[in-house]
Amino acid sequence: MNQLFVLSFDTEQAATQALHSLRSLEGAGKVHFEDTAVVTRDADGTAHVKNEASAATEVGAGIGGVVGLMVASVLFPVVGLAVGAAVGAGIGALTHKGVDGKFVEEVKADLEPGKSALFMVTQEVNAGLLVAALRPYSGKVIQTSVDEEFEASLREALKKA
Predict the structure, then answer these.
(1) Digit-coded pLDDT (tens) for 116-151
(2) Residue 66 and which of 36, 103, 128, 155 are 20 to 30 A apart at CA?
(3) pTM attached to this predicted model
């Protein structure tokens, strides 16, 4: 079951650093992200969304690249790889299980200038590991889809930073 986390931070740098800490957990095989995005609002009010490729898009691109390479390996291997990867990424995007775009727009509209929000959709994640990785950062929980105990421990950890 996928779990949604939306956290706000006082700066873009804090959201980006928090995401990098979480990505190190992913690199160690401790968590798997379906989707992540950092939303920021400049001091002048301009909003930006930095959406990383979702796992579905990455997997689709990889599979498509391999299939394209196999199909076109005799004639045009480089073109086959590129076309296959593009088609695979498109298929992966169609099966996207990430954050709802409307919800991102709502949070973006409510975000104060200079602030940021981190969106994450994970598969099952260990509460202790996630909380420990986010403990160094000061932030607030906007929304989660986890149980009350997990969310409370996350709120407390983000307060203490």
Answers:
(1) 999 999 987 899 999 999 999 999 999 999 999 999
(2) 36
(3) 0.71
Q: Is 26 left (phi over 0), alpha (psi -120 to 50) or beta?
A: alpha
Ramachandran region, residue 152 (left: φ > 0; alpha: ψ -120 to 50; beta: rest)? alpha
* Domain range annotation of the chain: 3-53+99-160, 56-94
Question: 3-state SS of the chain: helix, strand, coil percent to 5?
Answer: 50, 20, 25
Cβ atoms of 139 and 18 within 8 Å: the answer is: yes
Task: List the one residue out of 79, 120, 114, 73 whose CA is nearest residue 98.
Answer: 120
Q: Residue 98: how many CA atoms within 13 Å on its side-chain side?
A: 23
